[in-house]
Design a protein that fits this description.
46% of the residues lie in helices and 3% in strands. By secondary structure, it is mainly alpha-helical. The chain has one domain: Winged helix-like DNA-binding domain superfamily/Winged helix DNA-binding domain (Arc Repressor Mutant, subunit A), CATH 1.10.10. A two-stranded parallel sheet has the order 1-2.
Length: 131
């Protein structure tokens, strides 16, 4: 798990009410029954990283954005690469939907989980309404 690798923490899902809720919400998302996440988050990062992550969380389900447009959205149009770096440091992909970022040409670009997984997540979201 990415969190464990980044923090060297060891925790057990199910022993923490927030992690239990997150697990439930992720299962609902994967089943096409959830379009947003309500679990409380305490994301650790720089002020800029948190700004980028919050902008990503504000993107509607199924929406996609380029790195350039995301830089503009966070009022840092010159910081396209920094937006990419913040995206790469995202500790909770899917919940902070970094899979929704595309290259400026509209093509799928880097994703920590792999391009195939990114394509699958975008396909899941493009199916439209929840079941």
């Amino acid at each position: 798990m990415r969190y464990r690798r980044l923090t060297s923490s060891c925790f057990s899902v199910g022993r923490n009410i927030h992690l239990t809720k997150l697990r439930k919400e992720l299962r609902e998302y994967m089943a096409g029954l959830r379009t947003d996440f309500t679990v409380a988050l305490d994301l650790q990062g720089t002020a800029f990283q948190r700004t980028v992550w919050n902008a990503l969380r504000a993107l509607p389900y199924g929406a996609q954005i380029s790195y350039n447009d995301l830089a503009v959205a966070v009022s840092r149009p010159e910081a396209v690469r920094a937006v990419g770096a913040a995206n790469g440091a995202n500790p909770l992909s899917i919940v902070v939907p970094c899979h929704r970022i595309l290259g400026s040409n509209g093509q799928l670009t880097g994703y920590g989980g792999g391009i195939e997984r990114k394509a699958w997540l975008l396909s899941l979201e493009s199916e439209g309404t929840c079941r």
